[in-house]
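Design a sequence for this backbone.
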């Protein structure tokens, strides 16, 4: 299934390629860093930065853009999307930014043209909330973290 998404290159991203799928069955379009060519964004260990992409998009109503990490950055450098997945609402028209965090042990330079994240376009639903005095019973009930058999470790204890 496909959906038309209008995309606008911003002046500081004019020379960069548009996001694209890297394989025929890829779920996400790769987002490219629009950092200045002469000034990469350096993220120190334990720090984060907002990375511009040089694009804005117009998603159709009933969809969202999910900004997700790239596995290669995480596996090789410990760099990932901080608020994964980030959400781009269908009525947002500003520049897409990617908040990257460095969990690695060395500083990481985000250079212009680097593929920094993936953008997955997904359908959304709007809930019609209906307040109730009780909820239907289920096998799980109110069991939360670890209730399905996994032991939860609290601060390494």
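Sequence:
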């Amino acid at each position: 299934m496909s959906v038309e998404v209008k995309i606008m290159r911003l002046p500081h991203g004019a020379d960069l390629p548009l996001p694209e799928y890297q394989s025929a069955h890829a779920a996400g379009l790769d987002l490219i860093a629009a950092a200045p060519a002469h000034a990469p964004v350096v993220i120190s260990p334990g720090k984060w930065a907002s990375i511009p992409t040089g694009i804005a998009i117009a998603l159709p109503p009933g969809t969202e853009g999910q900004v997700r990490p790239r596995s290669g950055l995480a596996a090789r450098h410990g760099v990932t999307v901080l608020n994964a997945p980030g959400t781009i609402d269908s009525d947002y028209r500003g520049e897409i930014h990617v908040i990257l965090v460095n969990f690695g042990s060395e500083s990481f330079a985000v250079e212009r043209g680097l593929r920094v994240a993936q953008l997955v376009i997904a359908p959304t639903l709007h809930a019609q909330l209906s307040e109730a005095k009780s909820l239907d019973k289920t096998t799980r009930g109110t069991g939360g973290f670890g209730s399905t058999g996994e032991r939860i470790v609290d601060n390494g204890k």
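DSSP finds one helix and twelve strands in the chain.
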